Amino acid sequence: MASELEPEVQAIDRSLLECSAEEIAGKWLQATDLTREVYQHLAHYVPKIYCRGPNPFPQKEDMLAQHVLLGPMEWYLCGEDPAFGFPKLEQANKPSHLCGRVFKVGEPTYSCRDCAVDPTCVLCMECFLGSIHRDHRYRMTTSGGGGFCDCGDTEAWKEGPYCQKHELNTSEIEEEEDPLVHLSEDVIARTYNIFAIMFRYAVEILTWEKESELPADLEMVEKSDTYYCMLFNDEVHTYEQVIYTLQKAVNCTQKEAIGFATTVDRDGRRSVRYGDFQYCEQAKSVIVRNTSRQTKPLKVQVMHSSIVAHQNFGLKLLSWLGSIIGYSDGLRRILCQVGLQEGPDGENSSLVDRLMLSDSKLWKGARSVYHQLFMSSLLMDLKYKKLFAVRFAKNYQQLQRDFMEDDHERAVSVTALSVQFFTAPTLARMLITEENLMSIIIKTFMDHLRHRDAQGRFQFERYTALQAFKFRRVQSLILDLKYVLISKPTEWSDELRQKFLEGFDAFLELLKCMQGMDPITRQVGQHIEMEPEWEAAFTLQMKLTHVISMMQDWCASDEKVLIEAYKKCLAVLMQCHGGYTDGEQPITLSICGHSVETIRYCVSQEKVSIHLPVSRLLAGLHVLLSKSEVAYKFPELLPLSELSPPMLIEHPLRCLVLCAQVHAGMWRRNGFSLVNQIYYYHNVKCRREMFDKDVVMLQTGVSMMDPNHFLMIMLSRFELYQIFSTPDYGKRFSSEITHKDVVQQNNTLIEEMLYLIIMLVGERFSPGVGQVNATDEIKREIIHQLSIKPMAHSELVKSLPEDENKETGMESVIEAVAHFKKPGLTGRGMYELKPECAKEFNLYFYHFSRAEQSKAEEAQRKLKRQNREDAALPPPVLPPFCPLFASLVNILQSDVMLCIMGTILQWAVEHNGYAWSESMLQRVLHLIGMALQEEKQHLENVTEEHVVTFTFTQKISKPGEAPKNSPSILAMLETLQNAPYLEVHKDMIRWILKTFNAVKKMRESSPTSPVAETEGTIMEESSRDKDKAERKRKAEIARLRREKIMAQMSEMQRHFIDENKELFQQTLELDASTSAVLDNSPVASDMTLTALGPAQTQVPEQRQFVTCILCQEEQEVKVESRAMVLAAFVQRSTVLSKNRSKFIQDPEKYDPLFMHPDLSCGTHTSSCGHIMHAHCWQRYFDSVQAKEQRRQQRLRLHTSYDVENGEFLCPLCECLSNTVIPLLLPPRNIFNKLNFSDQPNLTQWIRTISQQIKALQFLRKEESTPNNASTKNSENVDELQLPEGFRPDFRPKNPYSESIKEMLTTFGTATYKVGLKVHPNEEDPRVPIMCWGSCAYTIQSIERILSDEDKPLFGPLPCRLDDCLRSLTRFAAAHWTVASVSVVQGHFCKLFASLVPNDSHEELPCILDIDMFHLLVGLVLAFPALQCQDFSGISLCTGDLHIFHLVTMAHIIQILLTSCTEENGMDQENPTCEEESAVLALYKTLHQYTGSALKEIPSGWHLWRSVRAGIMPFLKCSALFFHYLNGVPSPPDIQVPGTSHFEHLCNYLSLPNNLICLFQENSEIMNSLIESWCRNSEVKRYLEGERDAIRYPRESNKLINLPEDYSSLINQASNFSCPKSGGDKSRAPTLCLVCGSLLCSQSYCCQTELEGEDVGACTAHTYSCGSGVGIFLRVRECQVLFLAGKTKGCFYSPPYLDDYGETDQGLRRGNPLHLCKERFKKIQKLWHQHSVTEEIGHAQEANQTLVGIDWQHL
Ligand SMILES: [Zn+2]
Ligand SMILES: [Zn+2]
Ligand SMILES: [Zn+2]
Ligand SMILES: [Zn+2]
Ligand SMILES: [Zn+2]
Ligand SMILES: [Zn+2]
Ligand SMILES: [Zn+2]
After folding, report:
1. What is the rounded distance in angstroms from the CA atom of residue 214 to the CA atom of residue 197?
2. For all residues of the chain together, what is the average pLDDT?
3. Cα 947 from chain centroid?
4. Which end of the chain, C or N, has fewer beta carbons within 10 A?
5. Are 844 and 695 in contact, with CB atoms under 8 Å apart?
6. Which has the closest alpha carbon to 1262: 1248, 1271, 1273?
7. How many other C-beta atoms can be found within 10 angstroms of the C-beta atom of residue 488?
């Protein structure tokens, strides 16, 4: 590009060319002070090579640099010609077993979900394809640039660390061998010398900060006054701002400015002006002035050209070093040594340190060059990687500080290299123990978050934009911490323990700053004024979630560490909440004779915080302890004695109460920020280290407390203590307090509290809490997700918490709990819960949101009803608790709990007022169910010596325990069983009573059987209920049956509509338009039907009535009545094109009369089939237009349709349309005159027509020479013998009504305008041609679709297609009536002359270059214009027949001339049939006429077969054409699928079965015609192989073949570089599915101008490839793109699915993708049907955001 802008090439300094590398190197070898020598050389030559003008000439510069600068170094290094030296080094080298390929942007990378140690381990494509992971569950992504292939790194892979290629190298590797042994002493010494000098030079010059002065040893003697104005990249200004500013500042064109901006963005800097200091300074000040208004100004420097020159060479040098060390690992090692060698200034003075520490000052291009050098040197050498890692860790704080100040993205910062060391387990551990890395990272992090409140907690409240920006940057430190922790140690050394715990201390300090941050107070009275900041705190929590989990994992792997960490964590928690704070006075609570002391604290009145990471970490560690061996064997060793359970539970409980109160509506005035926080607290992204751990903490606390005490404290925190501690409070409550809101609030709080108790007892699926393993936990999650509804894989993944192996973890259990259902043509594959898993369903599963809970409840009840089970959803059987938590179950049978249960049941029995709710009761029932299950399990597992202490059944049988003098819980349940208002819960109560009896029986049979007290009552009760129950059972059965029948019926109905969607649609359409005259009805079933000619089957006149969809008025279609129209859409099309490189160059001059057989640009018409009055439509369209104008003025919004171009949506079905077609009766019947004479045969007819044409041409000539008309005219008229009955002056009267005529013009003009893309002009002579062409093209395209799908020609066609073809054909046939007769006659004459030559038409296309079907349609439809002036008695039908026969014969000749000439010896000996000998004879004639140029084919069988196959499409199209033209019903035979129907078609078309007979019958004239066709020079050229021609039958176009495996597409695209900006990788490679071109889409570089507007590569491509319509695959996004015109587009689901039957738009999940052929066929069908534009329209109507996208820039 640069060379385009600056064509002058400067002459090359001769002295440069005369340099000899060998000589210079020789001089250097002798030198005493090599450094000085080399520097002098550089000082002299570098400015002579680089930066000689405004624009760089990279090729010239590189060439000269190699010759003058690098060449000598290579000579010096090798000590001989490097052409020999380097290969020698290469041979001696033992290559590394590491791949280390550095990824470019967009390059595919692969990871193995089964074997990668962590997700950062990736392979390059080549290694992946040669590895075992190919057949594993891999994941692919596209690289964002940076990073390298981990092939060969044994630490990165659990299995298969080497690919085939790198495996080879491993055998030769001896451990830790010094690569220098392969080099000679000399080479080592020289390499060392030259590397040291050059590396130092590069570092020095790149980090040089002065703008016009060079380092002393590089300063030149004479210095020119040439400067560059250098523009630097920043992340603040947009492309547009930069482009705009540049145009102003340096007076360049927009194109140049774009070029500058693109380079600045890519390389980080670009000179925008070259000249003397003043000149550059001026540009600088303009740029700075223009960009400093809102933000900080763009960075601009005026630099002396020699500095820029040296810097450019410095970069070149680094790349050179990178490539030189590729020759030998020994050279690499020397470079590493040189780089890390400490300089004279001690600490941090090595070259590597210097580069790293100036990273943030360097521009992008320089950074990426040196980062790449580091990657290919230091990171490839295991010894130096370690040393480098140490340097990196030592500089870590400084580097991070620099990064905070730097405004570039992290990808171009040296800090991003952390992933390379920190994820390598041994390195990470080494850095932890030796460099205390964990502590350093965490402390650095803390240093950057300085804002604290009075208690030392983080405070994000008043963050400025800059602080927020830094906060975002600082998060990358958490990422580093994550890397360090990614792999747990398998072995612990004492040092590691010590350093880890030090790091843990630092981490606790961090968490301490979060404990209690962002506290909130309930807002009463007014709504809060400003939503408080909450996101920052949650972002921090979210980012840390993973780290917290990993910290716990580390602790879990070593008991000593775990116990130490536990103690530390506890100590910090004590610090946070040591003792009771001031003002929180103790109070005493008592219920049922139990009492406890607690503090006075109200969540609703005092401060409360959601952030409690220290408590939660302790909870996590406690669970781990519980799981550990110590807990089982020596629990006394655990540091549990220091725990104060009330202190532990206090804060988590407050947090849970807060959630309950928010739910109860008590915190409404605190606004959305609180709602959001509560949402995230429970959300899958946070819950693991928030909500879940709070539940665990409560479980921990309760397991160490008297459950009665706990329950009282809980009641108090829920502010419900009064209600349950005061007898009969409920009654008083509902009678005294009339405030309904408060009552409801309390109801909700009670519900929430019961829910919490259910969770505390029921949630035992975390390993350590219950006796389960990780698989059980995830299984349970999946079961509950699938209880809501069947889900796709990705949905399930989203609903599970993230951890490194979550997907493989999920996959290992999913088979056990779910069935997979494959997807259909649309939709996704779904997992469905196995029925046997339903019994594990827990309605109160703690991860359900409220909405999910009610959905799941509904789904599960429905399932039960379907299985005819009772609808109770009892609690599932639970696994036992771990010993530390075992006492938790006692909550269920504690006195206070029984009191709460009793109270609520009592309320339910009394059922007065609204102070209780069904949910409350449901929860109590669930709790009772849990208790029964628990007791049952205890009894089942009881051993001889133990007594089951869980005696819930006994306790609930005793009356009067709880509310004084109340009946027993059991008795109340029995009462409630019959309560009419509790219908829904009856099943559950029945289940409880049944289980109660079962448990009781067990207890009786067990050794320690308690006395059965209440059995009698139960028995009694049940017998009393017996007949009542019987009656109920019957009623229930009847109800179920009714329900089932209803369900079946609605199911059937739904099913029917689903399955018959198409049919349903059609019937709707049928209803809407009665136009569907069933002409397939057997009008004349017995006789042979003939579609044309004098023998045409006469069809009785059919009256046609249609209804307007707009006014609902019915009207008959008649010649003289008002026009009825169909909404239609006309578009250009290349769907059938056989030559995509051809398109209309100059539409104003283009002559469409003859369609080339390559069908390169057609006009297609489609319609939705909806009928309107012409005037109704016009009114509708006017209103659309007016509305649109108003809308555009108001808001600059677009619509999915372009009103200015005549587009509108069908008022009924919203189908995109741009014109209307009038409905007509068969037009031939109107013009056909009676047959009153014998009809001429073909020969006679051709003669007559030729005479008429001659006469017309003569008259035409007369008219065009009017000057001496008066004198000569009379003579000439005498001269002209007018054929008999021909009256050229006759002008027929147009039979159509004004309104129909108007519509004929409207549609004709629209076709002309769209088809040629010109301005509408109804007078243009090409209008009728375009109408005929569109008719022919549309028929051809429909014939193709039917053939491709093997459908019969006249099978049931969708109504809309049938209507469209009929109207289109009839319209085309009637259009001549509104055109000029002489124009149409002129077209006819010319078309006719192409087959029957006459003198006045020359230069007509030869018959090889004419599409015969288009010719046929044109001739037939133009003929009436001639025939109307013929009164000799030749009928229209006769003409049609002869035209058809003539064209058919021409087509046969066309086929024979182009028939495949390969010899096919089959069947030669068979007795030849009549057709075969006839065709052979004809072929011989042709052979003769072509002067033997035609190859001889002796096989008539072969020829006849080619003719039959070649002519079929033409015959089918003709049959459709005449069928719609004349309205003759189609023969029933052709309506069914089956064989080719050749004979039936011939009969219908009035052709002999032996087509060759046509020639024989008309040999008189045909011989001369054939001769004239063959004489054409083009035919000769073709036969001599000088040109090509289309062969028949033409094959259908298909979309390109796509590979089965999507990764091969990505690979292909990653190798694709932008064709315009020399070798740059394209950012959005996009594949045209029509022709297979790869394009560089959505990018400035490949924009081109189209019709005066800049458009992207895709839009530009659609204009040549698809005449405006395009189908693309965006490879990196895995997304299909539809484009139409400049403004329309949509994305479409790609035809690639993963193993779970899902697409992956955006390649976010990265599962292997495979081609789904059916879906791809569907896309192809859309294309074949010309429905792409329509599809876009529907997509845009459905999703308005699609309208706003700048599609033309893609
Ligand atoms: Zn590789
Ligand atoms: Zn490899
Ligand atoms: Zn693998
Ligand atoms: Zn109407
Ligand atoms: Zn419609
Ligand atoms: Zn294409
Ligand atoms: Zn490009």
Report:
1. 17
2. 85
3. 62
4. N
5. no
6. 1273
7. 13
Q: How far apart are CA 955 and CA 969, in angstroms?
A: 9
Cis geometry, peptide bond prior to residue 1356 (ω within 30 degrees of 0): no
Collapsing DSSP to helix, strand or coil, 707 comes out as: helix
pLDDT (0 to 100) of residue 4: 41
CB atoms within 10 A of CB 446: 16
Q: Which residues surround ligand 1, an ion (CB under 5 A)?
A: 99, 101, 124, 127, 149, 151
Residues in the chain: 1754
Q: How far apart are the first and last CA of the chain?
A: 22
Q: What's the CA gap between 78 and 1451, in Å, rounded?
A: 75
Using H for helix, E for strand and C for coil, what is the string for 1551-1572?
A: CCCCCCHHHHHCHHHHHHHHHH
CA distance 793 to 804: 17
DSSP class of residue 763 equals -
The answer to whether the predicted template modeling score (pTM) of the entire model surpasses 0.85 is: no
Ligand 2 centroid distance, CA of 126 (Å) = 7
**Which pLDDT does position 5 carry in this prediction?**
37
Q: At which residue do the structure tokens 């606390």 appear?
A: 701
Q: For residues 1374 and 1336, is the Cβ–Cβ distance under 8 A?
A: no
Q: What are the C-alpha distances in Å from 214 to residues 217, 220, 304, 729?
A: 8, 8, 9, 91
The tokens 């006679």 sit on which residue? 1244
Q: What is the pLDDT of residue 405?
A: 86
The span from the CA of 399 to the CA of 393, in Å, is 9
Nearest ligand by distance to the CA of 111:
3
The first and second tokens of residue 897, run together, are 């709990």
Q: Which ligand is nearest to the CA of 1671?
A: 6
- pLDDT score, position 1072: 35
- At residue 1455, the 3 state secondary structure works out as helix
Instruction: Report the alpha-carbon distance of residue 775 to residue 1295 in Å, rounded.
Output: 83
Tokens of 23: 């000589």
Whether the CA torsion 1699, 1702, 1705, 1709 is positive or negative: it is: negative
Instruction: Tell me the residue type at 1325.
Output: P
CA distances from 1040 to 422, 868, 977, 1037, 1192 (A): 64, 8, 20, 5, 58
Q: Which structure tokens are listed for 1351? A: 């459908």
Spatial CB neighbours of 240, under 8 Å, sequence gap ≥ 6: none
Please check whether residue 1707 is in contact with residue 141, taking contact to mean a CB–CB distance below 8 angstroms.
yes
The two structure tokens encoding residue 846: 């703690």
H or E segment at 27? helix 21-30
Give the sign of the dihedral formed by CA 389, CA 394, CA 398, CA 400: positive
* Residues facing 123 on adjacent strands: 110
Tokens of 136: 């594993």
**Six-digit token pair at 1716?**
């789904």
Report the SS3 class of residue 1163. strand
Q: Is 636 exposed, middle or buried (0-12, 13-18, 19+ CB in 10 A)?
A: exposed
CA of 425 to the centre of ligand 7 (A): 41
| Contact by Cβ (8 Å): 96, 177 | no
Three-class secondary structure of residue 586 per DSSP? strand
Query: Low-confidence residues of the chain, pLDDT below 50?
Result: 1-9, 580, 582, 962, 1009-1024, 1049, 1052-1086, 1269-1275
d(CA 883, CA 899): 27
Residue of 1156, 1154, 1159 lying closest to 1135 (CA atoms): 1159
User: What pLDDT, on a 0 to 100 scale, did the predictor assign at position 216?
Assistant: 87
Euclidean distance between CA atoms 1640 and 1676, whole angstroms: 12
Which ligand sits nearest to residue 160's alpha carbon?
Answer: 3
Distance, in Å, from the CA atom of 787 to the CA atom of 863, rounded to the nearest integer, reads 10
CA of 1636 to the centre of ligand 6 (A): 6
Q: How far is the CA of 142 from the centre of ligand 2 (A)?
A: 18
Q: Could you list which residues have their CB under 5 Å from ion ligand 4?
A: 1108, 1110-1111, 1173, 1176
- pLDDT for the residue numbered 1058: 47
The predicted structure's pLDDT at residue 1073: 37
